[in-house]
Task: inverse folding
């Protein structure tokens, strides 16, 4: 269905087909052909536990790929313990506080939390530890430090159970995502692929994580509320309803839209930092790794803005949009990133209702983003789709029939 939705967008069809041929039908992180069995197991778990991360890790070179794969799996294990509310806090909190110490305990694993692939990851965590201990010592130090800080923050929020203020929201997002951004920046610097400036760029790195995490929290309203998880800050949603669950009801649709627009406006405040951060990156592979998720986040916020579907179902950008972002960033670099942020800002601007309580604030932020991006976007990058491109789509679509049949629908499944 997502593939069919892109038929009305020929430029997305070109990107989908181009990407499918380039990747030979696979969007997973490649399992190493050489190296230890435990390293191959780590990549297998990466592919099973994160489609999005498994995809963007392909953008990294060998200097960082294994370290960031392990970094992700360590934090995924931590997140699995935090999320499993079927296990008593009396068990989870001490485990969170000591989790960073387990990284230096060969053979350690745990079978008390999680389900499916996440549970299997913890049950086989000794294999992750083995690969962690094979990493260069500077990488180990960074990963353990971020794990320690994140686990302490998660434990604090298990105790408080609710995100009350906007300050709380920022702090929670810092613990679960901002610290990831800080850790990645330190790894980039430690690899010598990026300037040492990144090692100390905590605030701007934090913004990178907060923008992604807030986008996920906003988009995942229905899933979280159905699971009795509350990540929307009371300070914002209580302006529009007496209960966060009220937004699922049709009679509160107007209030629901005002609330989500308020939250999106808050998330937009991080974009100037994000653009500044990515403009400083020098390594092409690191840039792609960072930029692709950020561009998908602004596209997601543009789709969610003033969209009541967030409260009734799953809202995702088209796979064709994802493919277009990947292709544009890969070929145009920072110009492609500016182009997609400008498109997202333009889309939000077109949907701002004069009677929305946050209209003026949203418009001011959108105009700031537009002013940052527009000077860097050449007209050629956003030209209308031409007849020649339509012919190209037709040719690619005809030749892709074999590819789609060969991979039995999996060609675009992971975008």
Result:
């Amino acid at each position: 269905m997502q593939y069919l939705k892109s038929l009305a967008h020929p430029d997305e069809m070109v990107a989908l087909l181009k990407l499918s041929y380039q990747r030979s039908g696979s969007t997973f992180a490649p399992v190493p052909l050489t190296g230890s069995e435990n390293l191959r197991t780590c990549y297998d778990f990466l592919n099973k536990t994160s489609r999005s991360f498994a995809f963007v890790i392909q953008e990294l070179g060998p200097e960082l790929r294994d370290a960031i794969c392990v970094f992700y799996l360590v934090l995924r294990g931590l997140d699995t313990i935090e999320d499993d509310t079927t296990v008593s806090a009396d068990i989870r909190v001490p485990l969170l506080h000591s989790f960073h110490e387990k990284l230096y305990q060969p053979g350690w694993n745990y079978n008390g939390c999680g389900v499916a692939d996440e549970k299997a990851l913890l049950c086989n965590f000794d294999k992750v530890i083995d690969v962690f201990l094979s990493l260069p010592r500077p990488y180990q130090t960074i990963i353990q430090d971020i794990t320690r800080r994140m686990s302490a923050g998660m434990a604090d929020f298990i105790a408080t159970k609710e995100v009350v203020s906007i300050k709380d929201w920022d702090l929670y997002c810092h613990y679960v995502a901002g610290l990831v951004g800080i850790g990645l920046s330190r790894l980039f610097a430690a690899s010598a692929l990026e300037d040492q400036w990144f090692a100390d760029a905590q605030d701007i790195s934090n913004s990178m994580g907060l923008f992604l995490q807030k986008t996920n929290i906003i988009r995942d309203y229905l899933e979280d509320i159905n699971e009795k998880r509350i990540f929307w800050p009371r300070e914002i949603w209580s302006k529009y309803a007496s209960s966060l669950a009220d937004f699922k009801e049709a009679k509160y649709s107007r209030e629901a839209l005002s609330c989500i627009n308020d939250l999106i406006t808050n998330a937009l405040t991080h974009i100037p930092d994000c653009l500044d951060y990515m403009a400083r990156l020098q390594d092409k592979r690191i840039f792609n790794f960072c930029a692709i998720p950020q561009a998908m986040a602004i596209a997601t916020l543009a789709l969610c803005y003033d969209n009541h579907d967030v409260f009734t179902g799953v809202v995702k950008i088209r796979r064709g949009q994802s493919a277009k972002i990947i292709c544009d960033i890969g070929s145009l670099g920072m110009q492609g990133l500016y182009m997609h942020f400008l498109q997202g800002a333009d889309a939000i601007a077109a949907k701002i209702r004069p009677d929305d309580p946050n209209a003026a604030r949203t418009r001011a932020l959108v105009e700031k983003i537009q002013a940052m991006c527009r000077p860097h976007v050449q007209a050629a990058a956003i030209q209308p789709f031409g007849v020649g491109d339509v012919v190209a789509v037709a040719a690619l679509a005809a030749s892709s029939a074999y590819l789609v049949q060969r991979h039995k629908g999996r060609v675009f499944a992971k975008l």
In short: The first helix runs from residue 2 to 5. The chain is about 65% helix and 0% strand. Residues 44 and 413 are 17 Å apart (CA to CA).
